[in-house]
Design goal:
The structure is a homodimer.
Chain A lengths: L20 H8 L3 E5 L2 E4 L1 H20 L3 E2 L5 E3 H7 L1 H4 L5 E4 L5 E4 L4 H11 L8 E10 L14 E11 L2 H21 L4 E5 L9 E8 L5 E5 L6 E3 L20 E4 L6 H8 L7 E11 L5 E11 L6 H5 L7 E3 L2 H8 L16 E5 H4 L4 E4 L5 E6 L10 E3 L18 E15 L1 H5 L3 E3 L5 E3 L1 E8 H11 L1 E2 L2 E2 L10 E6 L5 H16 L4 E3 L6 H11 L3 E6 H6 L3 E5 L6 E3 L1 H14 L1
Parallel strand pairs in A: 3-7, 15-17, 17-20, 27-28, 27-29
Antiparallel strand pairs in A: 1-2, 4-6, 5-6, 7-8, 8-24, 9-10, 10-21, 11-12, 11-21, 13-19, 14-15, 14-16, 18-19, 21-24, 22-23, 25-26, 29-30, 30-31
Helix pairs in contact in A: 1-12, 2-6, 2-12, 13-16
Family (chains A, B): Belongs to the class-II aminoacyl-tRNA synthetase family. ProS type 1 subfamily.
InterPro entries (chains A, B): aa-tRNA-synt_IIb, aa-tRNA-synth_II, aa-tRNA-synth_II/BPL/LPL, Anticodon-bd, Anticodon-bd_dom_sf, Pro-tRNA-ligase_IIa, Pro-tRNA-synth_IIa_bac-type, Pro-tRNA-Synthase_IIa_type1
Organism (chains A, B): Hydromonas duriensis
Chain lengths: 581, 581
C-alpha cells in the first residue's frame, strides 16, 4: 500500500470527550471518527486492525470446529417473548415497530435466533454437537456511552453458540472454545488472563471471562502469579483467613468509644489491631414467608473490618437474591442504635446474621454494642452471642490472601473484558421448547453454551495495554501495517527513490503488510504520524544517510535507537524482526 | 472441508412462500433460513458464496483506488434532516428513538454519514479525489418483502462514495467505478449488461445500472446485440420510426366506428394498418400559472397505436413532473366525449398536446373525432389541426426499433438490477454545506458519485440465470465449493478411502476449495444434494468402479455424462477443468 493511495489523518490533540488513553490515541491516530454518542466510523487505518482481529478469530473458531453463518441483526420480537427476554431486557435493547406495526429488536446478542434455527433443523442427538458462530455489528443502547470503542453502542462482536445432547457434551464444547480463546488472545499478542466469572444476567451454570490486563481496566482480577488461577473479583473465592476458631481469652467488656463510628477510629482508640474488629453491614431483603406474605428480612452481614462486602456472592445465598441498604429507620427498629455502633450482640429484634467465613473463626473480637458511643471487646461466638445464622464467603478477595488453589497467595490487577464463555445449560432451550430426540426417542432440551469476543473492544484494550508518550505500540498481529517505509529526500535523490521502491517491492513479494509513505511530508511530522499510529517496524531511507555512509535505518517502534544497515541487508533484517515478533 | 464438520441441510420441497426459482432453490439447498418477513440467516453454505462475492468486489474496488472503511449502521437523524431525506424518505426508512428520546435511523444508504465525514476531514482540493467504500448489512423496510434475498429487508450491500473537486474529476471517478463494476460482474461469471438508467429519487445527473440477464427479471432492458448499447426501458431512447413527415395524400374524413373504443378494433374495421393510428392518453398536470395560482393542465399525449407511454420520460418534460390519469369528468370537459374516441382535432378546450417523435412525423393518420362512435381518417398535422405543442420521446422502446447508436436494431430482455453507479453531483454536498477550498481559496461543494452493489442480491440473480431441474448451476467463482468428492462404499472398501483421501489432500494442496462428502449418505441422495447445491465439479470414487475397471468418475455440473478417469489422473483433470471455467 502506498500512503498516497490510502487515507491517513492524524490529530495533534485528542477531542475533549476522550477520557482514556485508548480513546484519545484512536481518535488522534485517525482509526475511528465519532458519528454520534457511542457510534463510530472505522476509518481505513482502524478497519485494517479490526479485520486482522476478525481473521485470527475466524481461523481459530474454524479450527475448533465452529461453523460460520450470519444471522440477521433485526429479529422479530416473538422470539424474545418466547425466551422471556422481551420483558427482562432493559432499555439497552433497541426495540422498534416496522411499517406494519410489528415489534422487532436490533439484536444485542443472538441466543433466540440461533435456538430457533437449531430447534427447526436439529431433530436427533445424532446431529449433535454443533457450534455456530458469526461476526457481526451489534447495537446496545448504553445509558452512558464512553471510552470510545470500549463502551460504544454499535460494536463488532464474534458470537458463537454450541448445542449438545447433555451436560458432559456441553462441557467438551465449552473446553474447546476456552482453548480456542486462549489461542486467539495469545495470537493477538495480548497480556491477558482467563478468569472464572460470575454468570451475570445471561443465566447458566459456569463461565470464564478473558481480560486484557491494563491499569485502566474496569474490572478487578484476582490472580495467582504461581499458577493459572484467576477470577473476576465478583467471583473469586475468598478463603477464611483464620483457619479455626481459638478459645476465648478475654471477657466481654463494654467500652466507651465516643463519636467513633468507624472501625479504624475504634481500633486506634482501643489500641486493638483492625483485624480483630467486625464491620456490620445492614441490608433489607424482600422475602415471602410461609403464609405467602411479603416480608422484609433485616440482614446483618459481618465482615472483618478491613474487608469489603461482595454483593454478587451475597446475592447467591438463599433468600438474598435481591437486597437493599437498610434505612436509618430499619436500623433503629432492629438495633435501637445508629450506624457505626451496630453489632451482632443482642439486637433489639431477631435479624438474620450472615458471617463471612473469616469472621466465623474469629474470637475475642471487637464489635458495636448496639448503643451509641459504645463497642464491645473480647466478644466470642457461642459464649456471648449465638452462632451466626449463615456462614459464607461474602467478601472481596484482597491482595495477599491465600490462593484458593493452595499455591501461595493471590494478587489483584485490573483487566478489560474482551471475551466471555458461558455454560448456558438449558435456559434458552427450555424456555423456547427447543428439543431433540435422544437415544431412547425421548425429547430433551439442547444443552447450550455461548461464547463472545468483543472484536472492536480488543482494539481499545490492546492500546490501553500498549502505548507510550508518542502513541500506540501495536502488537504485530493486529497493527494496521507491519512495516512502514519512510523515504526522506526522495524528490531530489534518485537513489532514495530506487532503494525505497526496491525495498517496497521486496517486502510485498514476501507477503509483508507494508506501507510506503510517499506523501512527501517533512521527516519530523512523518515519523510522528507513524509513531502515533504505532506501526511496529520502520525503515527510513534518507538522502543524507545514503550520501554519508551508504546506510539506511531500521527502527522497531519499541527500540531506543535506530539500527544502521546497508540497503541490500534491510529486507532480510525486517523479515527477521517480523519473524521474531 | 469435510461435510461431517460442516452443516448441510437440504429440503425436498421449497416452502410455499417461495415464488421464484432462486428463492426456492436457496431455501431447498439450505443457503438461507427465514427468520421473519424479508429477514434471513445466511447459513454456512450460503455464507460461503456471499463471502466469495464480497472478496471479488473488495479486490476490484481496491484496484480501482477506492479505500475501505466501515460506517455505523445506526445514524443520527440530524444528518438526515440536513440532507432533507428525513422528510423525503418514506416508511422504508427504519427510524427509532434511543433511550434518551433522540432520533436515529438504521441506514439504508450512507450518503449523509460519508458527506459529514468528508466535510470534516477534507479541506483542500489537494486532498481530492477520494473514494470510500464499505461492505455492510443494510435495512430497508420494504412494504412487501418477497423473492427471498432479491427483495429482502436486511441485506448486504457494497456502497462507495467518490468526492471530486469538479464535474470532470467526478466523471473520471465514475468511469473508474463503471470499469471496476464491469470487471466485477465478469469475474462473478454472470451474463450481465451495464444499462443507462434513469436517476430515480436519489437525484443527480447520470447513472448506469448493472443487470443480470434473466427471464424472471423485474426490469426491461433494451439492448443492441451488435454493440455495447443497453438501457433500462425507463431511460432507453426511442427514435422516430418515421424519419420525416410525408405530404398529405388523403382528405380528412369522419368515419362511423360504432362501439370501437380501441385502436385495434378501428384498424380492423377500417382495414387501415395499426401503425397509421394514434392512441390518445389524457393526463392532468398540477401546475402553477403566471399569477402563482395552482391550475390543472389537461395534457393529451399522442402515441402511435402500437406504442406504450413511458411515464418517466414524460415526467422530465417542463411542467409535467407530476401528472395523474385524467378523470372521466376532466375528459368530458376537455374533449366533450368519452375515452376511446378522443383525438387532437378540435378538442372542446385548449389542451397541451404532446406528440411522441414518431407521431409528429406521421401523415394521413387515424384518430378519435372527439365524438362518441366516430374517428377521423386522413388526418394531417398543420392542415387539419395545429402542430403539437411539444414533440418529445415519450414512448417505450419496442423490440426491432432502430438502435439509437445507429447500429441495427434493438432487442429487449429482462434483467435483475445488482449494481448501480450514480453521478450525484452536488446534491448532498450543497444540502449539507460540505465544501473544500479550491485553487483560488474559494469554498466549493464536493462533486460526488455513489456506487452500490447488492452483494446478497447477486446470489439470487446468479441462480435466476443459472439453474436446471436438479438445482443450482453456480458460476465457478461464487459456488460455495468448487469441487465435491463423493466416495461410495468407503465403509467397506479400503481403496475407496485411500483414493478419496489422496485426492482430497492433493486438491487442498493446490488451494482448491474442495468438500469431501464423508457423511455416509446413500449415493442417490448424496448426488441429489450436490446437484441441488450446485457445486460445479464432482468426483465420484466408487467401490464398484474401482473393482470393475479401476476408474473413478468426474462430472461437471452442466455435463450430460460422467468421464471415467484413472485415480492418478483425476486431480490433474479437475485442475484443468477449474482453470477452464
Amino acid at each position: 500500500m502506498k500512503a498516497s493511495q490510502f487515507f491517513i489523518s492524524t490529530l495533534k490533540e485528542a477531542p475533549a470527550e476522550a477520557e482514556i488513553i485508548s480513546h484519545q490515541l484512536m481518535m488522534r491516530a485517525g482509526l475511528i471518527k465519532r458519528i454520534g454518542s457511542g457510534i463510530y466510523t472505522y476509518m481505513p487505518m482502524g478497519l485494517r486492525s479490526v479485520r486482522k482481529v476478525e481473521q485470527i478469530v475466524r481461523e481459530e473458531m474454524n479450527k475448533a470446529g465452529a461453523i460460520e453463518l450470519l444471522m440477521p441483526a433485526v429479529q422479530p420480537a416473538e422470539l424474545w417473548q418466547e425466551s422471556g427476554r422481551w420483558e427482562q431486557y432493559g432499555p439497552e435493547l433497541l426495540r422498534f415497530k416496522d411499517r406494519h406495526a410489528r415489534d422487532f429488536v436490533v439484536g444485542p446478542t443472538h441466543e433466540e435466533v440461533i435456538t430457533d434455527l437449531v430447534r427447526r433443523d436439529f431433530k436427533s442427538y445424532k446431529q449433535l454437537p454443533v457450534n455456530f458462530y458469526q461476526v457481526q455489528a451489534k447495537f446496545r443502547d448504553e445509558i452512558r456511552p464512553r471510552f470510545g470503542v470500549m463502551r460504544g453502542r454499535e460494536f463488532i462482536m464474534k458470537d458463537a453458540y454450541s448445542f449438545d445432547k447433555d451436560e458432559a457434551g456441553m462441557k467438551v464444547s465449552y473446553d474447546k472454545m476456552f482453548n480456542a480463546y486462549m489461542t486467539i488472545f495469545n495470537r493477538l499478542g495480548l497480556n491477558f488472563r482467563a478468569v472464572a466469572a460470575d454468570n451475570g444476567s445471561i443465566g447458566g451454570t459456569g463461565s470464564h471471562e478473558f481480560h486484557v490486563i491494563a491499569e485502566t481496566g474496569e474490572d478487578d482480577i484476582v490472580y495467582n502469579l504461581n499458577s493459572d488461577y484467576a477470577a473476576n473479583i465478583e467471583a473469586a473465592e475468598a478463603v477464611a483467613l483464620v483457619s479455626e476458631r481459638a478459645e476465648p481469652q478475654q471477657t466481654l467488656e463494654k467500652q466507651h468509644t465516643p463519636n467513633m463510628g468507624k472501625c479504624e477510629l475504634v481500633a486506634e482508640f482501643l489500641n486493638i489491631p483492625l483485624v480483630k474488629h467486625l464491620k456490620s453491614v445492614v441490608l433489607a431483603a424482600e422475602q415471602v414467608n410461609e403464609n405467602g406474605e411479603a416480608v422484609t428480612q433485616i440482614v446483618l452481614v459481618l465482615l472483618r473490618a478491613d474487608h469489603q462486602l461482595n454483593e454478587v456472592k451475597l446475592s447467591k445465598l438463599p433468600g438474598l437474591s435481591t437486597t437493599r441498604m437498610a434505612t436509618e429507620d430499619d436500623i433503629m427498629q432492629a438495633f435501637n442504635t445508629k450506624p457505626g455502633f451496630i453489632g451482632p450482640v443482642h439486637p433489639a429484634q431477631k435479624v438474620l446474621v450472615v458471617a463471612d467465613k473469616t469472621v466465623a473463626n474469629m474470637s475475642d473480637f471487637v464489635c458495636g454494642a448496639n448503643e451509641v458511643d459504645y463497642h464491645f471487646t473480647g466478644v466470642n461466638w457461642g459464649r456471648d452471642l449465638p452462632e451466626p445464622d449463615l456462614v459464607a464467603d461474602v467478601r472481596n478477595v484482597v491482595a495477599g490472601d491465600p490462593a484458593p488453589d493452595g499455591n501461595g497467595t493471590v494478587d489483584i490487577c485490573r483487566g478489560i473484558e474482551v471475551g466471555h464463555v458461558f455454560q448456558l445449560g438449558t435456559k434458552y432451550s427450555e424456555a423456547m421448547k427447543a428439543t431433540f430426540l435422544d437415544e431412547n426417542g425421548k425429547p430433551q432440551p439442547f444443552v447450550m453454551g455461548c461464547y463472545g469476543i468483543g472484536v472492536t473492544r480488543i482494539l481499545g484494550a490492546a492500546i490501553e495495554q500498549n502505548f507510550d508518550a508518542k502513541g500506540i505500540l501495536w502488537p504485530a498481529a493486529i497493527a494496521p501495517f507491519e512495516v512502514v517505509i519512510c523515504p526522506v529526500g526522495a524528490d531530489k535523490n534518485e537513489q532514495v527513490r530506487y532503494e525505497t521502491n526496491n525495498l517496497y517491492n521486496d517486502l510485498l513479494k514476501e507477503g509483508v503488510d507494508v506501507i510506503l509513505d510517499d506523501r512527501g511530508e517533512r521527516p519530523g511530522s512523518m515519523f510522528a504520524d507513524w509513531e502515533l499510529i504505532g506501526v511496529p517496524h520502520r525503515v527510513t531511507i534518507g538522502d543524507r544517510g545514503l550520501k554519508e555512509d551508504g546506510m539506511v535505518e531500521y527502527r522497531g517502534r519499541r527500540d531506543e535507537a535506530a539500527t544502521k544497515l546497508l540497503p541490500e541487508d534491510v529486507a532480510a533484517h525486517v523479515l527477521a524482526q517480523l519473524k521474531a515478533s
